[in-house]
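Q&A log
Question type: sequence-to-structure
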Amino acid sequence: MAVIVGAEAQTVAVAWQVYSITHRALDLGYTGLALFLPGLFFLLPAGHVADRYDRRQIILLCYSLQIVCTGALLAIAVAGVRDVRLIYSVLFLIGTGRSFSGPASSALIPHLVPEGHFVNAVTWGAAIFQLANIGGPALGGILFTLPLTHLMGGVLAGAGIVYIATLCSLVTFLVLIGSLSVRLGRMEHRDISLKVVFAGFQYVRRSSILLGSFSLDLFVVLLGGATALMPIFAQEILHTGPKGLGMLRAAPAMGALAVSLTMARFPLRNKAGLRLFVCVGLFGVATIAFGLSRNLTLSLMALAIAGAADMVSVVVRSSVLQLATPPEMRGRVSAVNSMFLGASNELGEFESGVTAQWLGAVRATVAGGIGALMITGLWAVLFPQLRDADELTAKALRQDLQPDAAEKLLSATSD
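Response status: OK
Response body:
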């Protein structure tokens, strides 16, 4: 929770800082591209590293890099530098750290709880994540409007204040992760090779449930995500300023938190695939409503509904990722998932910035929502195993991979 609050607050500050410098939607898109590219470059070694080395130590090292990067953003803000290329460079380094910490963090989770409690643990983890997503953007919006102060011979205001708060959250995170007693050591004993690093891709390709869930999220969020355009909606369409931007960023998390707490009390027990597709379709409808809205309250309601629908998708996809993957391959399969997530989120921000530059923010958002609905219907036809998935258990989720094929694949990747 600590690190996500700081990261979300920092995201608000970076977006507002970049847009205040250039006033171009395309430059907002570049922030997402800068975060996405490292995941594309380091995807294969990141998965291998997560399966070969102590995942806890990987997390600690990567977030130490995050502290350095946030310190650099603070220095840029205090010095009043208006060259956005420096900001993009720092974001690229942040993306590099995330590309290695993501697979390690994801692969570590199943070792913290028994399988019987895993789906409920994912739900509670998602609730904490969404609570942080509520507090982070709101905190960023509030801190951005605090009075000017002086620091290191420069003026500290807006983004600079937010970056100090993010530094505090990162330090807290490192202390807490450092206190974990879980030490898995090496699970993959072979040196890096093309055969080893591509094993995750092979497994995902052979499992239609994994491939369907990864690609569904990729294309729906790639088309339907409007996060990068929120500064434009806050300033030019809803006329609410930084505080309004914080509210818009927090609204999806409000809806997601309500649903996650409900699901923690009443966990998903059956028809997981069908519920996934229904909620993804609802996400597309809510995105269209947000794009058409000219009222802050209506916009917040649409975003809350989108967040609530996405929460069901998150729980199902996170459970599928871990339960449908053998423990010794979770790092590499998680790396493949990180690539899909990065493409849907960060690359989606770039896509939103480009389409908004061409069509305008409103048309781009509405078109994205319509595209998300089309993808949902198409994927329901292309991936019937995902659509018909019932219970979220390892046995049920791995049955679409034929037993002899599964044994052959796992044997090949462990030779």
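Response note: The two ends are 40 Å apart (CA to CA).
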